[in-house]
Amino acid sequence: PSPSAPVSAERLAALQAAERERFLAEHPRSRVLAERSAAHYLFGVPLHWMRDWPNPVTLFVRSAHGAELTCADGHGYADFCLGDTGAMFGHSPAPVARAIAEQAAHGLTCMLPTEAAAGVGERLAQCFGLPFWQLALSASDANRFVLRWARAVTGRPQLLVFDGCYHGAVDDTLVDRDPATGSTVRRPSVLGAVHDHPDFTRVIPFNDLTALERALADGQVAALLAEPALTNFGLVPPEPGFWPAAQALCRRYGTLLVLDETHTLSSGVGGHARAHGLAPDVWVAGKAVAGGVPCALYGVTADLAARMQAVKQAAPEGHSGIGTTLTANALAMAALDAALQHLHTPASYAAMNRVADALEAGLTERLRARALPWTVTRLGARLELQFMPETPRNADDVRRHAQPALEASLHLFLLNRGVLLTPFHGMMLCSPATSPAHVDRLLNAFDDWLAALGL
Ligand code: PMP
Fold first, then answer.
1. Top CATH class, 9-91+346-379+391-452
2. Residue 83 has what DSSP assignment?
3. Ligand 1 centroid distance, CA of 25 (Å)
4. Domain ranges of the chain
5. 410, 433 in Cβ contact below 8 A?
6. Which residue, judged by its Cα, is nearest atom 14 of ligand 1?
7. Which of 134, 229, 275, 425 is the most exposed place for a label (fewest CB within 10 A)?
8. pTM value?
9. pLDDT digits (tens, 9 = 90+) for 128-154
10. ipTM topping 0.85
């Protein structure tokens, strides 16, 4: 055992084997469904990601309400994964469920804006602070479209991202930084890539202003696409002063600052940028923005909007490469309207932060009591248990402390005790429907896990 992995590999493996047996014994119905699904779905699931969980067979869901999920075998779970943020405001929030049920009887998709669109536009400007908007179906789509606009408007070829970034299924961003040379390399896991994205994407460490200025200095970078805090490679918050300085550098070198707040929407009403006084040129969100109904959006400043309109007008008629047929469909617009009115509110965030406070305090106290060299990192209603002595500054810090076996053990142990965590790292998200009882269930299960590991 090392200081930050104070458990032997043998002990972990034995516990994991026992937990796998327990899962199989307690989920006969999920096992049957997995067997039937294997006959007609590649990998046994409608999307192969659905096997990226530590349980030995897929967990099939019967229903989900608020912060709870019930599986096909009737077991209840306190859900801290929340559809990995899509259900951040709780599963089936009542105002959204009502709005889509009503809309469902009046058309689902028309390739025309519904009457609600005008009001939604006003509410978007009010909630997120940017004057002009476009919609998309997923955050991946929104980011792809924003990159097209950024390159079209600036006439610059390069994109800049942070090492460890994730912005969806966007080829340009599926790159890594070679730690030896600092150059960009294709992410080795990406399938079927033929274009040389590393030629057009620069990657720098997060929280590094020197590297940022160096990357921007030749005036070739159209946009810096970034999450305000890395949330997809372990939770890596910005250091104090980083963003105001980074924003100033982008302005100085004529690079558009695109903040992807798909996850950091959990930081406060209107997202992290708004809560921290940042002024991006483009602001992107998806997932939870319409309460979990597929919908994404990007807002732009008035200045950028004028430049976008000018390049569109100057382009020949035909396909722009931006947009999809079902974008801003009637159902999504109804959901977005309800979400803007009833979910993106100070009351939602107060409730989310209250339970996140309790969870943070409970976890921190347990680490301290056992003198464990681990950290709880917090960002609004999102927090993460990290198996390292302090909050990471960048992706390399996270890589250095990666402990996949310990993570998988925590996930499966908690799952077997009715607590669902995001299957990637130790991320926990609190919704307005998450209660102190849900937090207690997680903390009790965490106590039992530590005891099972002899910690
Ligand atoms: N941006 C960020 C910051 C994300 O975390 C994700 C998904 N994890 C995406 C974009 C892509 O979202 P989607 O898969 O819904 O397209």
1. alpha beta
2. G
3. 34
4. 9-91+346-379+391-452, 94-342
5. no
6. 168
7. 275
8. 0.98
9. 999 999 999 999 999 999 999 999 999
10. yes
